[in-house]
């Protein structure tokens, strides 16, 4: 049986395909359209999933959508009525869109699917899952656990903003919910907006900025914005927010509380912004910990699964792991709305059909999150030649030793291998790599390759077998969703003079043996690399270790700021030619910037809308 899962019409649209309960393909629409966070119907992703499985549209048994549009429409209407007459102007403008995309969504889905399979009776195949149930299903069913508590947190689904659930075997049920407008995700997004970053995109930046500041405003947030109970439940004071009926996240009362208007995009960051980031991060961690402790008390579970956009807060995840509330934690790598496509399909398989889970083997069923398109070597060569690329094709032994030497020489390497990752993180198949020992690598990659803010940290990809020698963390972290401290013996303590530097100026001070992946608080966002899930990436890091003694590489996504992660060999070549990446590897094709046709150089710095 084939079940197609869809998420669409808000942000990060995606499609996923199950065959007899096993995930065979999943991809975000943005990777094909090259439009960051594309919210449109994921037609390209659907076609990819069908092609990957080698099936035609009529072979799809059911299509599962990740939320219930009528409930969402109900919430929108009731919210505006509750705040009337405030917001009537925006309500009047939004109503035609809501009617088309929410109230008549079954008709819209049928029409979009007809473009893919004109003769298929799609309406008879449509199923709808509630938004947070889709999140919970995406986390629990693929997890390596026989039973687990499940915590989901995001902005808002239909009504729910957070849910506590419990899964055992093929049964998963929601225990408690927190409802709109009280939302931890929207509270965090309010500070994303207020500190000058883009909502639903810049939350990562707030998290990355937080260690440069002090949580000086945390008490102000607790006293005025959020009332947190001992069990982690909370209520927001809506007098400070504008997201229910307006076009902004915050209002004048919020501005007055924090001493000024929102920072304008691209405006210089100052210490106040860093302190605001640190403060909302601290409050978020408090809520997450209390919610997790409560669900553990209520269920007695030893295992925890996480999903929803807040589950991408890897700093909170790492704290949760270190606190030991649960013996094991598993986070859905596509924890945001894209992962809802997987959850909706799994919910249909297990709940609608009552099918048992796949046998547990100690590993999860996301297969490293390598669920996207791949390209055969001969196809890669044809595509690159047609793009005008000049390359050599060394054998594996020569390729890995050569690239390891390039990395050790300080070069930025674009690394394109195998199936594309599903979710927001590049995990060694669509990555830009660098030498973590270089004090200049973080700044170089941010400013000259990614064209983004210099403060944003990079992740270390470390051989799993060497993890405990470099980081204070003993568990798997294959999806780059846990933050942990650098081991003390690997650190370099800052001098008193260095400690007095303005936040971002601390970037230039080496803090460990691997300064390019060591944040200012001596933390790092870990990716453990396993030989069984990604043998080529594991082999490259092993070659780098053999050359340098260091089993770690800088790993960041293969894209520039505002661009989706590359999908095709042509995408990789364009990004290579439009940035200061010096070496590109696509399959076994090895490209060097200095031998390429200079007429093919691109200006990627201003090619995409800023994120």
Number of helices: 20
How large is the radius of gyration?
23 Å
Q: Kindly identify the CATH topology of the domain at 377-600.
A: DHBP synthase
List low-pLDDT spans: none
The CATH architecture of the domain at 377-600 can be given as Alpha-Beta Complex
Within the largest sheet, what's the order of strands? Answer: 16-17-15-18-14-13-19-20
| Strand coverage percent | 15-25%
> SS-based structural class?
alpha/beta
CATH homologous superfamily name of the domain at 377-600? Carbamoyltransferase, C-terminal domain
Mean pLDDT: 93
The proportion of residues forming helix, as a percent range, comes to: 25-40%
The main sheet comes to: 8 strands, mixed
By CATH reckoning, the class of the domain at 377-600 would read Alpha Beta
Distinctive features:
20 strands, alpha/beta, 611 residues, 17% strand, five-stranded mixed β-sheet, eight-stranded mixed β-sheet
Report on this model:
With 611 residues, the chain is an alpha/beta fold. It has helices at residues 30-33, 43-53, 69-83, 88-103, 105-114, 131-140, 184-194, 203-209, 218-225, 252-257, 271-299, 314-323, 340-352, 377-387, 396-408, 441-449, 467-470, 496-499, 535-548, 569-578, and strands spanning 2-7, 14-19, 22-28, 62-65, 126-128, 147-153, 160-168, 171-179, 226-228, 234-236, 303-307, 328-331, 413-416, 430-434, 459-463, 482-485, 523-529, 552-557, 583-586, 589-592. The protein has a domain at 377-600: Alpha-Beta Complex (DHBP synthase). It has an 8-stranded mixed sheet, with helices on both faces. A 5-stranded mixed sheet has the order 3-2-1-4-5. A hairpin with a 6-residue loop joins strand 6 and strand 7 (160-168). Helix 7 (184-194) packs antiparallel against helix 11 (271-299).
């Amino acid at each position: 049986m084939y079940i197609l899962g869809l998420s669409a019409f808000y942000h990060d649209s995606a499609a996923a395909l199950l065959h007899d309960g096993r995930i065979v393909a999943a991809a975000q629409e943005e990777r094909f359209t090259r439009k960051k966070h594309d919210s449109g119907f994921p037609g390209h992703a659907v076609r990819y999933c069908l092609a990957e499985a080698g099936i035609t549209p009529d072979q799809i048994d059911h299509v599962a959508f990740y939320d219930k549009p009528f409930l969402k429409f109900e919430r929108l209407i009731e919210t505006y009525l509750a705040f009337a007459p405030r917001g009537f102007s925006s309500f009047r403008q939004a109503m035609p869109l809501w009617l088309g995309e929410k109230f008549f969504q079954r008709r819209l889905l049928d029409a979009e699917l007809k473009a893919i399979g004109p003769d298929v009776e799609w309406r008879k195949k449509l199923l709808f899952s509630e938004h947070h149930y889709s999140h919970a299903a995406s986390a629990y069913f693929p997890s390596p656990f026989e039973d687990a508590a499940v915590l989901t947190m995001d902005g808002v689904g239909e009504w729910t903003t957070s849910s506590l659930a419990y899964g055992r075997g093929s049964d998963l049920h929601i225990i408690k919910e927190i409802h709109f407008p009280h939302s931890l995700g929207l509270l965090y997004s309010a500070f994303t907006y207020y500190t000058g970053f883009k909502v639903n995109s810049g939350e990562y930046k707030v998290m990355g900025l937080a260690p440069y500041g002090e949580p000086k405003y945390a008490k102000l947030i607790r006293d005025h914005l959020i009332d947190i109970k001992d069990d982690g439940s909370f209520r927001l004071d809506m007098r400070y927010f504008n997201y229910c009926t307006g076009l902004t996240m915050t209002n004048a009362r919020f501005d007055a509380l924090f001493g000024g208007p929102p920072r304008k995009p691209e405006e210089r960051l100052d210490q106040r912004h860093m302190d605001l980031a640190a403060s909302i991060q601290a409050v978020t961690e408090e809520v997450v910990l209390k919610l997790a402790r409560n669900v553990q008390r209520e269920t007695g579970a030893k295992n925890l699964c996480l999903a929803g956009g807040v589950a991408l807060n890897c700093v909170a995840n790492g704290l949760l792991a270190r606190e030991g509330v649960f013996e094991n934690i598993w986070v859905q790598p596509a924890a945001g709305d894209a992962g809802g496509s997987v959850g909706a399909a799994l919910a249909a398989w297990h709940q609608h059909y009552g099918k048992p889970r796949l046998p547990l083997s100690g590993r999860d069923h996301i297969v490293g999150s390598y669920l996207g398109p791949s390209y055969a070597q001969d196809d890669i060569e044809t595509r690159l030649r047609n793009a005008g690329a000049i390359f050599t094709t060394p054998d594996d032994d020569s390729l890995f030793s050569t690239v390891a030497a390039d990395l050790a020489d300080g070069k930025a390497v674009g690394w394109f291998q195998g199936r594309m990752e599903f979710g927001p993180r590049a995990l060694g198949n669509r990555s830009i790599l660098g030498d973590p020992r270089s004090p200049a690598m973080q700044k170089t990659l941010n400013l000259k390759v990614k064209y983004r803010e210099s403060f944003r940290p990079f992740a270390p990809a470390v051989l799993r077998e060497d993890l405990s020698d470099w980081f204070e963390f003993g568990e798997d972290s294959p999806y780059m969703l846990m933050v942990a401290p650098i081991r003390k013996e690997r650190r370099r303590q800052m001098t008193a003079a260095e400690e007095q530097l303005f936040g971002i100026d601390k970037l230039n001070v080496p803090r460990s043996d691997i300064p390019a992946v060591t944040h200012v608080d001596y933390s790092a966002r870990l990716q453990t690399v396993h030989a069984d899930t990604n043998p080529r990436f594991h082999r490259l890091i092993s070659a780098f270790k053999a050359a340098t003694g260091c089993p770690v590489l800088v790993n960041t996504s293969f894209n520039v700021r505002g661009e989706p992660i590359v999908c095709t060999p042509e995408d990789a070549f364009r990004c290579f030619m439009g940035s200061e990446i010096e070496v590109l590897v696509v399959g076994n094709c090895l490209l060097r910037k200095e031998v390429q046709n200079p007429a093919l150089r691109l200006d990627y710095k201003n090619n995409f809308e800023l994120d």
